């Protein structure tokens, strides 16, 4: 099985960015951790981060027919991007939305997500652990027998 991990804007700054909110783990370390978890599950995981909305849309398009599921921390685009929503729905690839912080415990503008209502599930508020939980949830969803 092949899966794609997408990280949106400013997540390349993890480790130094608002550590009280996002923790001290770098994105490289989070990705390494997730790659190990994926390997243990016999899953091929590709990781992609961009600060550009269009680059994320392009990467989702490239994933069509290539991956069975997507893990996405869209960063601030979660709250603004109809384009990312359309790309995910257009690609028709099941996805899990994830966040390091609990977006519902923060500013009002972070409470709405353009992605959440069509996601397999949402994981928010567990720091770097959100990535692991999201992978576990997506795999459980993809591996369940077809209804
Ligand atoms: C975030 C939450 C978003 O509101 C914020 O814009 C981010 C990070 C998180 O992982 O907690 O960039 O997605």
UniProtKB/TrEMBL annotation:
Pathway assignment: Metabolic intermediate biosynthesis; chorismate biosynthesis; chorismate from D-erythrose 4-phosphate and phosphoenolpyruvate: step 3/7
Catalysed reactions, semicolon-separated: 3-dehydroquinate = 3-dehydroshikimate + H2O
One Pfam family cited in the UniProt record for this chain: DHquinase_II
Site-annotated residues for Transition state stabilizer: 17
Source taxon at top rank: Bacteria
Gene3D superfamilies: Dehydroquinase, class II
GO process terms (BP): amino acid biosynthetic process; aromatic amino acid family biosynthetic process; chorismate biosynthetic process; quinate catabolic process
A GO term for molecular function: 3-dehydroquinate dehydratase activity
Catalytic residues, chain numbering: 22, 99
The EC number(s) this enzyme carries: 4.2.1.10
Primary enzyme class: lyase
Binding site for substrate: 73, 79, 86, 100-101, 110
Keywords for this protein: Amino-acid biosynthesis, Aromatic amino acid biosynthesis, Lyase
UniProt cross-references to PANTHER family, sorted A to Z: CATABOLIC 3-DEHYDROQUINASE
Subunit structure: Homododecamer.
Role this protein plays: Catalyzes a trans-dehydration via an enolate intermediate.
Family: Belongs to the type-II 3-dehydroquinase family.
Protein name according to UniProt: 3-dehydroquinate dehydratase
Organism from which the protein derives: Prochlorococcus marinus (strain MIT 9303)
Gene that this sequence comes from: aroQ
